[in-house]
Specification:
By secondary structure, this protein is an alpha/beta fold. It contains seven helices and seven strands, in the order ββαββααααβαββα. It has a four-stranded mixed beta sheet.
Amino acid sequence: MEKMSVSELMRPIAEFPRISSEATFYEAVEALENADWQYKSGNAPERILLVYKEPWKIIGKLSPMDVVKGLEPNYESIDGLKSYPYYFLIRSSFEEIRKDYRLWHEPLRELWRRANQIKIRDFIKMPAADQMVAADDKMDLAFHVFVVSRHGSLFVLEKSEIIGLLLFSDVYRKIKETMTTAPLPPAA
């Protein structure tokens, strides 16, 4: 399996629902709800919603976490904190951060009213390097990226274009299948 290329196990972007980066915040919430319903009813492999700039130019994916983050625009000013070496200490002082960056000071109803005036492009982030693999990469590299980055899916690139997603659930299924069909080595 380690010699298998990522392209052999990836799912092409055509298999996933998509939404325009020009869609409104409300449309994003509705599309996520629909993707979740499609997944739960067995009509979709995952509840991943891809975001496109042009019909076939995928620029990222939208998750419920993005919606929550999009509700509070002040998170933009603290995004760099995660790379800080002592981030775990910062987590324990949420009240200080909340006060300093004015997080969640507005009532949810007001945040929702304001957020509904923005478009997905205003809060979606392009995938980071630790969320991407190349179509011709071998699966052992993908194993490593999954373990280190702890993402549930990786974007698959070909010539710097996103052409699909490699889902951890598919990778794990293939690992399990390989393990159960391969004979065990003799005990030492």
